[in-house]
Amino acid sequence: QVQLVESGGGSVQAGDSLRLSCAASGRTVSSYFMGWFRQAPGKEREFVAGIGWSEDNTYYADSVKGRFTISRDNAKNTVYLQMHSLKPEDTAVYYCAVSIYYSISYYATDYNYWGQGTQVTVSS
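RESULT FIELD:
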């Protein structure tokens, strides 16, 4: 079992930055693919960013490319999502997740464990 706890969400103005953290416990996740997803009201959960065991392997949704950066600290069993130049359309609940069996995945169904989510609200 893996427990994931996200933190760092909040309410900000457009153009501001936030850094989300996802702390894992119960199992070392350093060798697993980790992803950040988000879900806005009335919309499906969507892939935001993912990272392999190495920070050389990072993947982003087109909507966040160049603004968001995913990273991991394997010593702390933690994954981060640094978000810059936030827009109102980034408003959503952000979830981190771990995929035990896939080395890369953009699909929520490929992930085995999820955090409870953290709200990010961006006002114009």
